[in-house]
Amino acid sequence: MQKLPSPYRPRVLAPISRVAGLDYDVLDELLGYALRRAQVGMFLAFHAATRGMDITPPRFTALVIVGANPGIGQSSLGLVLGIARSGAMMLTDWMEARGLAERRRRPNDGRAWGVHLSVRGEALLARMKRRVTAEDRKRASVLDTRERRELLRLLNKLAR
Q1: How far apart are alpha carbons 27 and 34 in whole angstroms?
Q2: pLDDT at 3 over 80
Q3: Which of 11, 26, 128, 147 is most buried, taking the most CB atoms under 10 A from its CB?
Q4: Region for 10 from its dihedrals, namely left if φ exceeds 0, alpha if ψ lies in -120 to 50, beta otherwise
Q5: How far apart are CA 93 and CA 77, in angstroms?
Q6: Reported pTM
């Protein structure tokens, strides 16, 4: 695969703008194109909320899921994230190395390990959830409450 020259490679994630006067042809009818534009906008909001925190969307998701499900196994965590168990293990290693989570033996199965947030992880997660939620709502403020609920319902329907 040929690499594009540097002027054609975006260095930073940027909104996918609509350019006045251009014909977007079939793109205006494709859900995937509209979803990608919206996804980039929401990722920008996420990155604004987590600036300087060394957090990516998968890391945030992992912290949220572990926080809401103390003792979750790495296989289940991988399923939630759509990654292999080895990827979930790497995420757990990342969390442990930063003192955000720890592995503990499961009480009913001495061979299995569950992932738990540490006190530090719980504090960081609480701060991140406030910031990410605020940015998410700010970005989506063009929608009223009913529209937001309906969009979430429809996106969840498409994700099945």
Answers
A1: 8
A2: no
A3: 128
A4: beta
A5: 13
A6: 0.84
